[in-house]
UniProtKB/TrEMBL annotation:
Residue ranges annotated for the N-acetyltransferase domain, each copy included: 1-135
InterPro entries cross-referenced by the UniProt entry: Acyl_CoA_acyltransferase, Bact_Acetyltransf, GNAT_dom
GO molecular function: acyltransferase activity, transferring groups other than amino-acyl groups
Protein name: N-acetyltransferase
Length: 152
């Protein structure tokens, strides 16, 4: 597997981006100010992480997706670990990520990577998304903000 940071978005990225966030308009609000970490196997894109520096010293994982065939193989964890290392290299003090309260798999993965729940944003998905989102047979309404602080 090959991991590579890049600045530009390509058409092949969109299926993965939309897998993690069903709103193309929401994705477009952060892509231009973000870096993308791709993972390829035999030239095929199999995973993508979008990282944005939201203010001095704080980066946010905006989007993370691995193609279904390659899920549960530790690729998501490797993407997160590389994002954490990248944030530390640029002297960030903190990295954050937000996920839906019904996103059980991602929530567990982030916690396994050292993130802790910082806040609940009630009704986030009902306010900012036009379509109703059903995940794991539950109506998604609230968003969890998780963070990991770095010690200097």
């Amino acid at each position: 597997m090959q991991f590579n940071w890049r600045q530009t978005v390509s058409p092949e990225d969109w299926p993965l981006l939309l897998e993690a966030d069903p709103s193309k308009s929401m994705i477009e609000t952060y892509l231009k100010q973000s870096e993308l970490l791709e993972v390829r196997q035999e030239g095929h894109l199999i995973g993508l992480l979008v990282l944005k520096q939201i203010e001095a010293g704080i980066s946010e994982i905006m989007n993370l997706s691995v193609t279904p065939l390659f899920q549960t193989r530790g690729i998501g964890r490797q993407l997160i670990e590389q994002a954490i290392a990248h944030s530390k290299e640029r002297n960030d003090q903190k990295i954050i990520v937000a996920t839906g309260t019904t996103s059980v798999g991602p929530l567990l993965l982030y916690q396994k990577c050292g993130f802790r729940v910082e806040a609940v944003e009630r009704d986030y998905f009902t306010k900012y998304y036009r379509e109703k989102i059903i995940e794991n047979d539950v109506y998604l309404q609230d968003r969890l903000l998780l963070s990991q602080e770095f010690k200097n």
